[in-house]
Specification:
Radius of gyration: 16 Å
Number of domains: 1
Shape: globular
Order of helices and strands: EHEEEEHEHEHEEEEEEEEHEEH
Number of helices: 6
Strand content: 25-35%
CATH topology: Metallo-beta-lactamase, Chain A
Helix content: 10-25%
Structural class: alpha/beta
Strand order of the largest sheet: 2-3-4-5-6-7-9
CATH superfamily: Ribonuclease Z/Hydroxyacylglutathione hydrolase-like
CATH class: Alpha Beta
CATH architecture: 4-Layer Sandwich
Largest sheet: 7 strands, mixed
Length: 237
């Protein structure tokens, strides 16, 4: 059976996909801009990714889709792609990982359980459509691993469901990056409606995240962010 790289399909139809999904409000990415003094959001199509500045280090959480669009949005923030020093991928879907090649100086991290998705050992959908390979060298993380970058501590939290290796990241015990671990609707946490590989497992991951305390900000890939984490997720406890 022929294997099809997801990027072959998504490069052709992504503009249509974006227009439809934004119009029906399945996703609601927010505009590129500054969230705090050291946290920034970048919009690429249906998805957001985030940048955290830590002294001279520039840390990316996911990398967006569409290289020319990524460069344009970063330029709007005065950030050069070559300035990115670290990249943490929540998972390997095209709208989160397509821009990884732009950050050629960055150390890349992802879940060890997600590696099967980029080595063609496990199909993303339909049994023959696969996520793209990551060409650069990368580091594999397991649940509760901690990466220290200068004064910044980043804790890896396994949150499978959307993909087998979906991973959330906790920055300095206070800022939570969840990727597609859940979505925010009217200030409340819900599982994703489409494209989960295991929705029941995603619900388990949401319950796991609901046990976190002292979260000041939680950022999603498609439905913005909230400073009201406890109120958003309490119904999962």
């Amino acid at each position: 059976m022929h294997r099809i790289d997801a990027s072959f399909i998504t490069n052709k139809f992504y503009d249509i996909f974006t227009a439809i999904f934004v119009r029906i409000k399945h996703v609601h990415p927010i505009a590129t801009g500054k969230i705090t003094d050291n946290l920034f959001v970048i919009k690429t199509g249906t998805a957001n990714f985030y940048i955290y500045k830590s002294e001279e280090k520039v840390i990316c959480f996911d990398s967006g889709f569409g290289k020319s669009l990524i460069i344009r949005e970063l330029n709007n923030l005065g950030i050069d792609p070559s300035a990115i020093t670290h990249l943490f991928l929540t998972h390997s879907d095209f709208d989160h990982a397509n821009g990884a090649d732009l950050f050629d100086r960055a150390e890349i991290y992802l879940s060890a359980d997600e590696e099967q998705m980029i080595t063609r050992k496990k199909a993303r959908i339909y049994g023959f459509i696969y996520n793209s390979r990551i060409k650069s060298t990368y580091h594999l993380l397991k649940d509760n691993d901690v990466v220290t970058i200068g004064p910044t501590k980043i804790k890896a939290i396994a949150t499978p469901g959307h993909t087998p290796g979906s991973m959330s990241y906790l920055i300095n015990d206070s800022i939570l990056m969840v990727g597609d671990a859940f979505r925010l609707i009217n200030g409340k946490v819900y599982p994703l409606k489409y494209y989960n590989m295991d929705t029941e497992k995603q619900k388990e991951s949401i319950r796991k995240l609901s046990g976190l305390d002292n979260i000041q900000l939680v950022c999603t890939a498609h439905r913005g962010y909230t400073e009201m984490f406890r109120e958003a997720i309490d119904h999962w406890r």
